[in-house]
Write a structure and sequence with these properties.
InterPro entries: Flag_bb_rod_N. It holds the Pfam family Flg_bb_rod. With about 110 residues, the chain is of the alpha+beta class. The protein has one domain (about 1-30, about 35-65, about 75-110). Helix content is about 65%, strand content about 15%. The chain is built from 3 helices and 2 strands. The protein is elongated and about 60 Å long. The two termini are about 20 Å apart.
Length: about 110
């Protein structure tokens, strides 16, 4: 039980870290003309969570008319996504911490 919780927490840490990297990449290239932003898509796997990175579909003519960034990256969405991914990372860290404490307790009982 504690080992599977540890594995799930670690996969959550890795997935959220990767998703944060995607948003950082999108924000860093926000002013790059014709940059195609990427999206992180979370998927459940038997061992936890994984992230697939894909290019976001967008219409350049629509972004030029609305006056958003030349790349089509939406700053508000990037900030919101980053906050969600950070919260997911923090939650996964708490799962890892709890699993670590439980494993330590089990080892103390056996010793």
């Amino acid at each position: 039980m504690a080992i599977s919780a540890l594995q799930a927490g670690l996969s959550g840490l890795q997935s959220n870290q990767q998703a944060l990297g995607v948003e950082a990449h999108n924000v860093a290239n926000m002013s790059t003309q014709n940059f195609q932003p990427q999206q992180a898509q979370f998927q459940q796997t038997p061992g936890g969570t994984s992230v697939t990175i894909s290019s976001a579909a967008r219409d350049l003519s629509a972004t030029d008319q609305t006056g958003s960034a030349p790349s089509g990256t939406d700053p508000a969405s990037s900030i919101t996504n980053s906050l969600v991914y950070k919260a997911g990372f923090d939650l996964s860290a708490k799962v890892v911490q709890a699993a670590d404490e439980r494993i330590g307790t089990l080892l103390d009982i056996k010793a």
